[in-house]
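Q: Can I see a sequence and its folded structure?
A: Here is a first one.
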Amino acid sequence: MSNPIYNNEGLRVVKEDYCCEHWEPDDGVLVPMRECWCCKWSNFRNDGKNTEVENLSVCNYEGNVETVISS
């Protein structure tokens, strides 16, 4: 298993098909597949800034923040 990658704010960078133990379905999904794309903690569609690599986002769950993980 590879080491997690974090952005400048310490948020974990995730792909659409990643899924962790903190996964919770987004309220708006029709089919709650266990993927970050359908997780309420990801922001694939929220900010509209994801133009460089469309299948990457960050996890907003406080338990996945770099400072929490490395403590």
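Q: Show me another, different protein.
A: A second, unrelated one:
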Amino acid sequence: MTKRHRKTLSLSLYLNYFVHGLGLIILTQNMQALSHHWQTPIETVSYVISGIGIGRLLAYFIFGQLSDRYGRKVFVNLGMLSYFIFFLGMAFVRDSQVAYGLAILAGIANSALDAGTYPTFMELNGNQGASNVLLKAFMSAGEFLLPLLIASLETAHLWYGWSFMVAAFILSLNFWQLNRQKFPPKNQASAAVVKTSAPLSRLRRWLATIGLAGYGYTSMALMILYTQWISLFVTRELNYSSITAHLLLSLYSIGSISGVVLIFMSLRWGVAETKLLIGLNLGAFSALLVVCFTTWPWLSMVATFIFGFTAAGGSMQIGLNLLLKLYPQAKGRVMGLFFTLGSVASFTIPLITGWLSKQHIGRAMRFDLVISLVGVGLVLLAIWALGPQQSLVQQRHRINRIDHHLVSLLNQRFDAVTTIGGLKQQAQLPVLDAKREDQVLARIAKQSRSAAQTPYLQAIYREIMLNSRTYQQVEPIKIMKTQEDLTHD
């Protein structure tokens, strides 16, 4: 595939995840409107939302394996068609049982998109981790814009179903565009993500697998619970206005997008995924503490932005990347396992929080703290089991940083060489001073921390000194100028 074709295909795949971002919160953001339309309690809407988790649970693991067998494009198309039916149907349905079936279809759509899209990006010869994280940016963009759209519809007293229709329209346009593109061959690995760390023991591999797979549950649960209950929590428990509630969710999405950008750049710069994962999860827990217990709107806004940055900025994708590196020959199956556990979260969290909300909405919201704390524990377990992680990309970035300092120091060395050349000419001394070069090589041997590396370091310095002598001879004008400057001084 040409670079242009890869970019066009990538854009279509990313646009699907913008629509997916709309689909993730479109039911929660329309909870009150749907409750009124169906003439049911708001808890019923929460139970309908749990159907998304059922759909994911039914489809993820199967689709992941079938994607390896039948190719990616089939499942991307299946996801788009399923989402299209969901958006159109949910805009008009009046029966909550039919709505539950449509919610299941939305979960299947999510599973199909992931089964086709994540492996496709692995096979596009790009940076696997960075590409997967960037998907989250488009999801976050959808999550950011949807509350603004719904707030505008509410202000103008327009039909709530327009939010569903907009999503369906975007999908229909993208369906035509995507099917004009050619997908890369399936099961094609990317050389940019070759793992170079030492093999793990069987026990450590299992502990890392348990930690990362479990994180597939907690990372999804953390975001689902927050987006489902934050608006009702701040309006009913903290007496914030409806506009402030919608603004908080938008700030969460802005934080998520900002986090994706920073994480994307960090991965490209070679920052270790394990370090990012620890920092993001500790930050998410701290921000959630503030959100759950503050009564100051401005502080809620700051904490919500930080929570979006840390919890929804791509940490889930980082966890998936680490798990994929443990089992590089089973991409579809591993992805299916990780997202299957996320699907269990999509199913169970609305049920648990629906029950908790009957007692107190604050309890439903603060249950997110328990989930966050468990997630931190699973991350620490996995990272301890994995040990120090290294990759080709990370080590190349490390070399780049070292080379940057070396070039600066060599520039300074050549400046000193120029001055010495001038002094030698003034004293009528030869350019070559063999005794001095032997002293330099002896000092290098003494300073070297590795006896095995010493001969190679000396060979490098022989070349440096050879090029220094050559530089003195081909830069007579600079040397003469140095002499004049020394004379004047």
